[in-house]
Each structure stands twice: as C-alpha cells, then as structure tokens.
Amino acid sequence: MKSRASILFMAFVLCSHAGAQQRNVLFKDSHTLSARWELADSLRNGNFLLSSYKPVFVLPATWSSSPNQIPYRSDRSLPTGPDPAPLNAVECKFQFSFKTKVVSGLFKNKGDIWVAYTQSSRWQVYNKKLSRPFRESDFEPEVILVIPMNFRFLGLRVRMLSAGLSHQSNGGAAPASRSWNRVIGQVGIERGRFTVLLRPWWRFPEGKNDDNPGITGLLGNGEVIFIYQHKSHVISAQVRSSFVDAPLKGGSVQGDWSFTISGHLKAHLQVFHGYGENLLDFDHKQTTIGLGVSWLDWL
To answer: 219 is in which domain, residue-wise?
Structure first.
C-alpha cells in the first residue's frame, strides 16, 4: 500500500509540473463553478484534458485528539480485537484529486460526462517504532453527469446540477477492509464571493457482507460545502450529517483556510471534528488539526 500511494502521488506531481508549461495548463487555477466545470461555451477545453476536482494538499503535521488504535470494533466476526496499535498522534496527511471530461454535449449541446479520481492518505511517517507505515489510504473513482444551469432563486444563482456514481474503498483486507458505493447528487449555487455545494447521496445496500455497518448513520446521507473567497484567501466549511435521519447521532464538520505564499503554492490549515475523518475511522470520533501547503481548493 505504501509503494502504491507513493507512486501515484509522484506521478501526479510530475504530470502537474509538465502540464504547467502548456497553454492549457494542467489543474489550471479557476475560481468559479463555470470555470471549474466548463459550464459556458467560452470555457470549454475539449475532452480528456486533466483538470482539478477536489482540494490538493500535503499536511505534514496532522494531530489527532484520539488516534484510532483499534479500528475493528464494527467487525462482529472477530471474537476479540487485535492489540492496540501504538500510533503517533501526529502524522502526515495528503490528498490529490483530478477529473477529465469524456463526453460533451449530451442533450442539445448541454450536459457532459466526467470521470474523476481522488486519493487521500494518512502516513505515520514519524512513527519509527511501526516502521513509518501508511496507516490508511482511501481511493475514490467517480463517474459524473454535469448539467449547466443559470437561474436565480431567492437571490441565489443556481449554476449546475450533477449526479454521479462513486466507489470509495481503502483496498484493505478484513478486518480492516472498508468500502461503499453511492449515487451522489450535487447542486452548485453562487452569490458574490460565496459558493455553496449541496451534495446528497444514497448508498447501495451491501447486505450481510457490509464492511461498514452503520456508516450512513455516522457519516451521514449528504454534505453541504460552504466556500468563501477573498483575494488569495479561500475559507471552506464541510458539514456532513444524516439530515433526514437522526441528525444528531453522527456527522462531522471540517474547516479549511488557505492563502497564497508564492505563485500557486498556498499555506493550508485544516480542522476536523466528528466521525469518519477517513474510511477506516468511520465509527471513530476525533478532532484533528492539520497544517501544511496546498495547490488547489474546491474552486
């Protein structure tokens, strides 16, 4: 797992550097939903060009209030769990994410199909006792249909609707295996410097072989992402909850703040509280604080 994550991350960095020399730069900086999803004819770049999707960052110092030393509580097949792992409270967290459009203009020149990939990893790089392992890596490929919109509602501008299929897993073996499959909708709304993404989802049932029993109740059945931009500063809040079913049972909130240091390099602060900071910890509640750098935000 360690080598796989490292190879993918290095490939991403090399591709980003090479593409930055071209006219249509890889992961080009864009600060609106229209630019990020090519919602206007003047912003279209054709198919099979890699572009940014979710935030891309490296947080070398990420502290947890409660490292999950026994991530097997939900596996009922184990009569007794393994001994607690001596995890460090501080680890490295990084994420890279990209997408590409594969089909353009499905409905009278409106509507595109995108494929996307996101990987998020937690690396116990300072844990010499455990030989510095990758504690968790979550992989998420997606297929997304995006429909451009342009109408106002209660003073807000609705810019896009989307629906997609998502498979997220950690590639682990039992009892550490975690995965789920979802249909994810999205409504993109803008007003001035504010952007709001409404993202409800529905999980495909997995029956008796469920790797994550109760995950929907803890991670929720949707999220709302609030984004505020001012000059080089981007502040976002990501709220997950079971909005229609026991909303106080689980859920989480994550806040991010980034600002430009030099060129496209940004300082990045991330604070998380709740359940599901990663798939392995879907039923574990903690607070984490991460500090590092980023290259891309939600917009």
So the answer is: 2-296
Domain count of the chain? 1
Helix (H) or strand (E) holding 272: strand 265-275
pTM higher than the cut 0.85: yes
Indicate the pairing of strand 285-296 with strand 265-275. Answer: antiparallel
Any idea what the CATH number is for the domain that residue 154 is in? 2.40.230.10
* Count of beta carbons in the 10 Å neighbourhood of residue 193: 14
Which of 63, 56, 55 lies closest to 289 in space, CA to CA?
A: 63
Catalytic entry in 31, 167, 264, 273: 167
Closest CA to 141 of 174, 184, 103: 184
Strands (E), 126-215: 134-153, 156-169, 179-191, 194-203
Q: Which residues contact 82 (CB under 8 A, 6 or more apart)?
A: 70, 72
Q: What angle do CA 293, 294, 299 make, to 5 degrees?
A: 150
Say which of 31, 169, 177, 264 is annotated catalytic: 169
Residues 6+ apart with CB under 8 A from 83: none
155: three-class secondary structure by DSSP: coil
Give 236-280 pLDDT, tens digit per residue.
Answer: 999 999 877 655 678 999 999 999 999 999 999 999 999 999 999
167 is catalytic: yes
